[in-house]
Amino acid sequence: MDAWEVLKQATEMERRGEAFALATVVWRQGPSSSQQGARAIITAGGELHGWIGGACAEPTVIREAGLVIADGTPRLLLLGSPDQFGGAVPEGITVVPISCQSEGALEVYIEPVVPAPRLVVVGRSPMASTLAGLARELGWHTTLVPGEDFTSADADERSMVVVATQGHGDEEAVEQAAAARPAYLGLVGSERRGAAVLGYLADRGVPAGQLDRVRVPAGLDLGRTTHKEIAVAILAELVQLRAAGALAGPAGAGAATGTTAAAAGGGPGGAGAPAGRGGRAGSVDPVCGMTVPATAGGYPLDHDGVTYRFCSPGCRRAFEADPAAYAAAVNSPGETRC
Q1: Which of 122, 255, 323, 329 has the most crowded CB, counting CB atoms within 10 A?
Q2: Residues linked to residue 301 through DSSP beta bridges, in sequence order
Q3: What is the pLDDT of residues 5-58, one digit of tens each?
Q4: Residue 175 lies in a domain
């Protein structure tokens, strides 16, 4: 894909509510296979779409993009030898040394694209209309669905669902919503009414694990309120839960990749290694720090019961010449080589 096709795909992914990072090359120093203005999308699963550079730059960008998705903070990277930049690197830019045979360098800006929250309001009541309107004012993707038309296909695991049918098919709407396993499911009604609805659904065989996630009454407890104030109370609860990270979906921060093997509790090439291009498990080359596929093509070498993999025969030979030094370096906490 060229840079414009990358942006088109990014727009489509944002529309679908997928979290990802957008990487842009803002400066290059030859020789380098990338070009200024090149772009790539990195998904929360570690897949890269587009072109950001060769085998030296790509694993680093994938790894850093995982961190950007996780913490929601953009970062500007300088990829190359520190000698190329001297002491003139501006504050706020992260220098990431990479050990390529080429002496090229890249400056890459990685920004998170966090989709707007998705809210599904079920019902025809004035409160339902007010809640949908308030959520749209916040820029949330909001759908207002009549209770009789609502099905589990109208929501997913990233959605927040508020059932405000208020006595008109509450049981059917909650059952359909629970089957979608949304990030949030609230029922507008009294505790007594909620107990009756949930008890009926339990008798119908709806799994307890689904019913236990239903919040009833939905919203913060503000006492006796008008229907407009109930809408505000529900929206306030949703904002509070999102700010606390309690509504993270499968593509939220907790699902982002990018942790190193050591941080995740795995050894080189172990289960904790970051994913490479296409989401494949990767292993960190202990010599140059590149992420390489955890396959036979990674020039595997066993040392002290651990399998190490390398980007090239040259790195493997360097490791064999002094395995103790490189094994210690790859497991040094906080060290970043590429």
Answers
A1: 122
A2: 308
A3: 998 998 888 877 788 999 999 888 776 667 888 999 999 889 999 988 777 788
A4: yes
pLDDT of residue 274: 35
Question: Taking the model in full, what pTM does it have?
Answer: 0.57
At 233-283, the pLDDT tens digits run 999 999 999 888 787 544 333 332 332 222 333 333 333 333 333 333 457
Q: Cβ atoms within 10 A of the Cβ of 310, count?
A: 25
Looking only at the bridges linking them, the beta strands covering 301-303 and 306-308 are antiparallel
Contact indicator for 127, 217 with CB cutoff of 8 Å? no
Which of 113, 138, 158 represents a domain boundary (last residue)? 113
205: left (phi over 0), alpha (psi -120 to 50) or beta: left
* Structural domain includes residue 200: yes
DSSP string, 191-211: HHHHHHHHHHHHHTT--HHHH
By residue range, what is the domain housing residue 11? 3-113
Count of domains observed in the chain: 3
Decide if pLDDT at 89 tops 80: no
Return d(Cα 228, Cα 307) in angstroms, integer: 62
Q: How far is CA 100 from CA 15, 56, 60, 74, 103, in A?
A: 38, 6, 12, 25, 7
**C-alpha–C-alpha distance, residues 6 and 3, integer Å:** 5
| Percent of the chain topping pLDDT 90 | 41
Q: Are residues 58 and 94 in the same domain?
A: yes
Say yes or no: 284 and 238 in one domain: no
Per-residue pLDDT at 282 = 58
Q: Is 34:83 a contact under the CB 8 Å cutoff? A: no
Q: Are 190 and 221 within one domain?
A: yes
Domain boundary residue among 113, 145, 179? Answer: 113
- With a cut of 90, say whether residue 336 has pLDDT above it: no
